[in-house]
Amino acid sequence: MATTKAPAGARILGSSIKRREDPRLITGRATFTDDVKLPGTTYAVFVRSPYAHALIHGIDASRALALPGVVAVYTGKELADAGVNPIPTAWVLPGIKYGQRRALALERARFVGEGVAMVVADDPYTARDAAELVDVDFEPLSAVVDAERALEPGAPQVYDDVPDNLSFDWSIGDAAAADAAFGAAAHVVRQRFVNQRLIPNAIEPRASLAAYNPATDELTLWTTSQNPHVHRLIIGAFALGIPEHKLRVISPDVGGGFGSKIMIYPDEVAVAWAARKLERPVKWTAERRESYLTDCHGRDHVTDAELALDADGRILALRVRTIANLGANHGLFGTVTPTYLYAPVLSGQYRIPTVWCGVRGVFTNTAPVDALRGAGRPEATFVIERLVDLAAARLGLDPPELRRRNFIPPEAFPYASSPALTYDSGDYAPALERALGMVGYAALRQEQARLRRQGRYLGIGLCTYVEACGLAPSRIIGKLGAVAGLYESGQVRVHPTGKVSVFTGSQQQGQGHETTFAQIAADTLGVPVEDVDVVHGDTGRIAFGMGTYGSRSGTVGGSAVYLSALRVRDKARKIAAHLLEAAEEDIEVEDGKYFVRGSPDRAKTFAEISLAAYIPHALPMEIEPGLDATVFFDPPNWVFPFGAHVAVVEVDAETGEVELQRYVAVDDVGNVVNPMIVDGQLHGGIAHGIGQALWEHAVYDDAGQLVTGSHMEYPLGRADAFPTFELDRTVTPSPSNPLGVKGVGEAGTIASPAAVANAVMDALAPFGITHLDMPYTPARVWQAIHAQRGR
Ligand code: MCN
Would you say 539 and 504 are in contact if contact means Cβ atoms under 8 Å apart? Predict the structure, then answer.
């Protein structure tokens, strides 16, 4: 049973300590952005475009302004005239063409939901009423929502200066070598994949509250961010031109993000600007329908992929052409997600001598597509894992056997999977064998054959995946196009009584950093975990930070905390040595005591040492007072977690319904800080990915209206639809960071869509169905079965 303390005698690191943040989160005591109340607050409501594509000839706010309680109505032109700049993207690709993202649309709206005016009133109800009184003179234009269609001649142009809506045409790998390998192959498997568009659906909708203090010229922005310092940098330095030391960004409790709260949104910029202009606090909280329309969306790829194999089933080459729908403009990570977060992991766990991937990024009249849990890696995993299963079927091999033949062997690490990335460490076969053992693979295959004879369709699907996360190091990603560094800061500040505050630039939205980072610091310093508090989400209190995405917090942020705790421990040993009149190298640390080796009674507690650091009467001149250290950790490489997932489904051929019966996952996330949190992250991620496989699909009609704009049309997985996930682990430490950890936050989402897809296709094999695109709704599955039966 997990407790809030490490069990007696156990190391804090590696213990399933209960998440200390949960009591406040589940008893209504958390502080989310919308909970922050300031006197004199005004409320913003955005007037949003009802058209996917329209010219804005004029905006008449007179009827709105006449409503009592309305404070102001702002338009894109007013903001642009006041010097508000477009919001930049974080990753630049060669030859890229930009689509500008502004706080409010200027002369043209490019997707349904884009903000064209902002109403500010004394209360939210008046603001909403007034928003309906703003008269916008729109001239609707024809729209394009489908990325393939957007590339066709004559398609509506989202930007006049971006011909054919093509923002970038990017590729990686050796095309000639791939052509040669395909020419020499015994088998070639080809498939077109549509990875459908998804909507993030965080429990807490996005919200912002800004307050300006004219006395100090300081602006404070509370906002739902995964990376408050990046928000400060972009909103301050780029969009509003406010010096960074005059802008404080606070992200208090954040109720889920899944990538959607990385982006710097137009609404946040507009709210911050208005608070300064009005010299009154301005608050905006999205309604759920606004979240559907304006939160960044995810995925939306169309891919043609080919796998070349020799006669023995050894993979020779992979060739992939992807069209990525970017939406109406670039999100913060909108350019890197379908390129560097996608192509370098297309080869998965396999030794593939030649991989070539070309990606065309295309603007359409839809919400911007940006990072969504897994960001690029679920799309890549889906491509390779479906291809491998198709190849196994073609060659008449058992899917695990084809995988075994192609695994990168453990001795091949570090392994360059592409010109961009080198896998740090891996040992893939044990995870697969353990997963097969857990699910009882051989017996299941027999059961499948038995049931098929009765007209029942059981499917067993595998996914052996690699994830690339913990994005780093700055000097490499800079060469690939990042316009930011990707390190993290960690500060360990010891108070005179020996209690500890840890400050981190990572920002949690549900990942349990307050627990795991406290474990890391407590374990390193030798203090009880309850003596350590973790502070995050406030640019006014934390040195700097790059935030949370790409499952980087444990590896990069956690390591920064670890290294700063090590520095503090070194100094504490120095002080202990002085107090105990011993040599520093003879001081050992155990159970919160710093003692002389071989003489456990010659000891000082951490509290005694801390007091001596702050009341340094007895310390020599060369020991500086205080006990505090900050480290910016920039790792030498990314980390590459991996694993083997197995889904077991039964398809009802009469209704097309897919029942997920079992889900087994063996993951390797390197060393583990908190096993319970790691399992929790896997549960959430697996559920998320199963959601994509079975239910979720964001659909725009041809006019660009989002027809899945609420929970009624966009179903999310519910607890009763999932079996108990059966989890296990192997441990292959990462050499990329001092803790040996790899990321886990996205792993489940990366693996589970392909595992479920392979299971459904395995179930449908008797009907001659080789591939269907997600989601496997009853209608889609039933139609496919029916089409085959009707042949
Ligand atoms: N951890 C561990 N041992 C490891 C690896 C991680 O104990 N070997 C712990 C970490 O210390 C951290 C947690 O597991 O407490 C997740 O760590 P990590 O994999 O580093 O991921 P991040 O904390 O950087 O979280 C980001 C990742 C991403 S990119 C998305 S999207 C995501 C996710 O995690 N969004 C989430 N998990 C989420 N979980 C919740 N509840 N809500 C979201 O919005």
Answer: no
Look at residues 2, 3, 7, 11 and name the one whose alpha carbon lies nearest to residue 526. 11
User: 505 in ligand 1 pocket by Cβ < 6 Å?
Assistant: no
Tell me, using a 6 A CB cutoff, whether residue 553 lines ligand 1.
yes
pLDDT confidence band for 8 (50 / 70 / 90):
low
Would you say the CB of residue 558 lies under 6 angstroms from ligand 1?
yes
Q: Which of 251, 681, 692, 716 to mutate to test the pocket of ligand 1 (most atoms within 8 A of CB)?
A: 681
Angle, helix 747-764 to helix 377-395, in steps of 10 degrees: 30
| 612-634 average pLDDT score | 96
| 731-780 pLDDT per residue, tens | 999 999 999 999 999 999 999 999 999 999 999 999 999 999 999 999 99
**Does residue 333 line the site of ligand 1, with CB under 6 A?**
no
pLDDT tier at 5, thresholds 50, 70, 90: low
* SS3 state of residue 530: helix
Q: Are 142 and 156 in contact (CB under 8 A)?
A: yes
pTM over 0.85: yes
C-alpha span between 649 and 656 (Å, rounded): 12
Specify the 3-state DSSP secondary structure of 469.
strand
For residue 555, report the distance from its CA to the centre of ligand 1, in Å.
Answer: 10
User: Which is it for strands 54-60 and 500-504: parallel, antiparallel or unpaired?
Assistant: unpaired
User: 511, 517, 667: which to mutate for ligand 1, most atoms within 8 A of CB?
Assistant: 511
Quote the pLDDT of residue 698: 98
Asked if residues 714 and 775 have their Cβ atoms less than 8 Å apart, the reply is no
Q: Among all chains, which residue has been given the structure tokens 């399933």?
A: 16
Residue 559 has pLDDT above 90, yes or no: yes
User: Mean of the pLDDT values across residues 106-119?
Assistant: 98
Separation of 758 CA from ligand 1 center, angstroms?
A: 26
CA of residue 158 to ligand 1 center, whole Å: 36
The number of beta carbons lying within 10 Å of the beta carbon of residue 600 is: 12
Cα 406 vs. chain centroid, distance in angstroms? 29
Q: What are the DSSP calls for 194-258, one per residue?
A: EEEEE----SSPPEEEEEEETTTTEEEEEE--S-HHHHIIIIIIIII---GGGEEEE--B----T
How crowded is the C-beta side of 577, counted as CA atoms within 13 Å? 16
CB count within 10 Å of CB 33 equals 25
pLDDT of residue 2 exceeding 50, the answer is no
Closest CA to 383 of 350, 408, 418, 361: 350
Give distance in angstroms: CA of 285 to centre of ligand 1: 25
Is any ligand 1 atom within 6 A of the Cβ of residue 641?
no
State how far the alpha carbon of 244 is from the alpha carbons of 103, 543, 713, in Å: 19, 12, 42
Mean per-residue pLDDT over the chain, rounded: 96
d(CA 743, ligand 1 centre) in Å: 7
Q: Are strands 488-494 and 115-121 parallel, antiparallel or unpaired?
A: unpaired
- Pocket of ligand 1, candidates 204, 299, 744: which has the most ligand atoms within 8 Å of its Cβ, to mutate? 744
Looking from the CA of 370 toward its CB, the CA atoms found within 13 Å total 26
**Is a pLDDT exceeding 80 seen at residue 113?**
yes
The span from the CA of 705 to the CA of 542, in Å, is 42
What are the beta bridge partners of residue 604? 594
What integer pLDDT is reported at residue 528 of this predicted model?
A: 93
* DSSP label of 621: T
Q: Whose CA is nearest to atom 2 of ligand 1?
A: 673
> Two tokens at 505?
């630039």
pLDDT in tens, 41-75: 999 999 999 999 999 999 999 999 999 999 999 99
pLDDT of 591 above 90: no
- Give the residue whose CA is nearest to atom 33 of ligand 1: 745
